[in-house]
Specification:
It is a single chain. The protein has 168 residues and is α+β, with helices and mostly antiparallel strands. The protein is 26% helix and 30% strand. Strands 1, 2, 3, 4, 5, 6, 7 and 8 form an 8-stranded antiparallel β-sheet that branches. Strands 9-10 form a two-stranded antiparallel sheet. A hairpin with a 2-residue loop joins strand 1 and strand 2.
Length: 168
């Protein structure tokens, strides 16, 4: 499925986005934003998803369709690919953040300047129904409701998982 979803944005699907996974009933659920715009981002998303599936720290439950959209902030860079992954985990919010930062690094993330091009960006959008504000983490993710990269995949997440409308 390919459809225009906003100014300069295209929503589409592949074999893994959207997808529903089996739950093991972990104690916490978190919605993770996934993004990138350097190299084979779609292939990297698939590898990250496999990595999460095979690990012990988080268990994917559901993915959203993919969204190709223009960058914001620093705009002199390629378009981004974004999606969402709902996971269950026994980790607390700060532990999950440390783990996601480690996964980003493992998949080639280098932080050169704010809003720079990146191989992989993993953000905690929601963690259970918690509100949290610390020096390293704010939940829910600030400004999530203003970002097409979150809101467009989120609108399609449940419907696509229940009744896939995409054929890769």
């Amino acid at each position: 499925m390919r459809s225009e979803s906003g100014e300069g944005s295209v929503l589409f699907c592949n074999r893994d986005f959207p997808r529903r996974f089996l739950s093991r009933r972990g104690p916490h659920r978190a919605l993770i934003g996934i993004g990138g715009n350097i190299g084979d981002v779609e292939g990297r998303f698939k590898r990250v998803l496999r990595y999460l599936e095979n690990g012990r720290r988080v268990r994917p439950l559901l993915t959203a369709p993919l969204l190709k959209n223009p960058p914001f902030g620093y705009t002199d860079q390629p378009d981004f690919l974004n999606s969402l992954i709902l996971v269950e985990t026994a980790l607390g919010p700060h532990e999950l953040l440390r783990y996601l930062l480690w996964v980003e690094k493992r998949f080639g993330r280098r932080r050169s300047f704010p809003n720079a091009p990146r191989t992989l960006d993993l953000d905690i959008i929601f963690f259970d129904n918690r509100y949290l504000k610390s020096r390293r983490l704010v939940l829910p993710h600030p400004h999530f409701a203003e970002r097409d990269s979150v809101m467009i995949p989120l609108r399609h997440m449940s419907a696509a998982a229940l009744r896939p409308r995409c054929r890769p």
